[in-house]
Amino acid sequence: MTTTTKFNPYLMSNFAPVSKEITTNNLEIKGELPRDLSGMYLRNGPNPQFTPLGKYDWMDGDGMIHGVRISGGRAEYRNRYVRTGGFEVEKDLGYAVWSGRLEPPQMNNPYGPYKNVANNGLTFHNGKLLALWEAGLPYEIRVPSLETTGPYLCDGYLDSAFTAHPKIDPMTGELIFFGYALDVAPYLKYGIISARGELLQITPINIPVPSGPHDFAITKNYTILMDLPLRFRPEREKQGLPAWMFETGVPSRFGILPRCGNNEDIHWFEAQPCYMNHILNAYEFEDEIILYGCRMSSTYWYPGTARDPNENIPRMYGWAFNLKTGAVREGMLDKRPSEFPCINHRFVGRQMRYGYTSRMASLRPLFDGIIKYDFSTGRSLSHDFGEGRYGGATTFAPRIGSIDEDDGWLLTFVYDEKEKHSELLVIDAQDIMGEPVARVMLPQRVPYGFHGTWVSEMQLIASN
């Protein structure tokens, strides 16, 4: 198979991969890093090591983690590939052997039909940093070195796909996850890993058609799974249609089950058709489950399948599911396009006041600022990156010893397209409209990527 990616936008400008893995100490800092901000900011993203085969999509590149360690007002940078099994095969051969998600699975490939690129999410649990890709196993990464240990098997008991967005309960320390399959039922599995890394349960959840959910939510006592109208039907390909299509008119389904429940305990609620890549948070309030996320009225995965360019735009949205009556309330909270929602992780599954999203600058995944939502007052404020400066996902790092929910910093990589350089912004979350308190100038370009996480200094020490 030859490449068709010569003029692919996801291989150009700051979407293009970098070739070097480097480590640099004593980075230049404009402003001053807070003395009570100590730990490591990490962000995952696609970075193909060789020229891709076929139709390249942004999500196809090999995972690369970029990290900035902050301590004592100083910063150091390093980046490393996630050395998955597929990465090592291609490295040894010296060229790409897998195509991506826009091509049919390579059933005759001697190395397997697809490659786990481990390029999407990151989570830190039980002293382990995990690089995530929803169609395969997590990969364990050592910190702060960012060297790959290998697949994370949870003491040998984990053998299914694992979401790129697991949730960690801030009170129990449990890691809650799901995984989906496309080829054989059950198409959805739900699991819990204890704070000590023990697999407590994994149970099948029945859905009628593979729908490939990307995210989910938890509350103090419940888990919310999604079965949305973006569905996978391979028989469509015989008609010259994509296997993945948004099925207009099919309701969205939200399944709510007790934390340790199973398929018999789940209660499915129907809502207006939509798709949602990322959820902000959920919590219990009286008889209802409240859910916030970046909702799209429809979606498309393949070029040329869009009916309306606006249908693929995410906007902040809310739902309320009444556990007693079965009623559903829903509505848009903001007309501005935004994605990559985050909160102070101490409030995962609990009622929060604040949430943050990356503000979209165009139909492409370019983000020109951060929106801070105050769900108590209904107001929002924004931080602008400046002309020709674009970022990605934002991560909240709480101040050491903080009490207030928004007492901390928002961290994100930003690329200046005029000056052709990357930096890490450190923004006071309580003064989001103000200038960054610090700008960490990075020694090489950091391509636009996906999700990040903050690992505190105490967590770094405990992991070694």
From TrEMBL:
<feature type="binding site">
    <location>
        <position position="451"/>
    </location>
    <ligand>
        <name>Fe cation</name>
    </ligand>
</feature>
<feature type="binding site">
    <location>
        <position position="165"/>
    </location>
    <ligand>
        <name>Fe cation</name>
    </ligand>
</feature>
<dbReference type="Pfam" id="PF03055">
    <property type="entry name" value="RPE65"/>
</dbReference>
<dbReference type="GO" id="GO:0046872">
    <property type="term" value="F:metal ion binding"/>
</dbReference>
<dbReference type="GO" id="GO:0016121">
    <property type="term" value="P:carotene catabolic process"/>
</dbReference>
<keyword id="KW-0408">Iron</keyword>
<feature type="binding site">
    <location>
        <position position="278"/>
    </location>
    <ligand>
        <name>Fe cation</name>
    </ligand>
</feature>
<feature type="binding site">
    <location>
        <position position="214"/>
    </location>
    <ligand>
        <name>Fe cation</name>
    </ligand>
</feature>
<protein>
    <submittedName>
        <fullName>Carotenoid oxygenase</fullName>
    </submittedName>
</protein>
<dbReference type="GO" id="GO:0010436">
    <property type="term" value="F:carotenoid dioxygenase activity"/>
</dbReference>
<comment type="similarity">
    <text>Belongs to the carotenoid oxygenase family.</text>
</comment>
<keyword id="KW-0479">Metal-binding</keyword>
<dbReference type="InterPro" id="IPR004294">
    <property type="entry name" value="Carotenoid_Oase"/>
</dbReference>
<keyword id="KW-0560">Oxidoreductase</keyword>
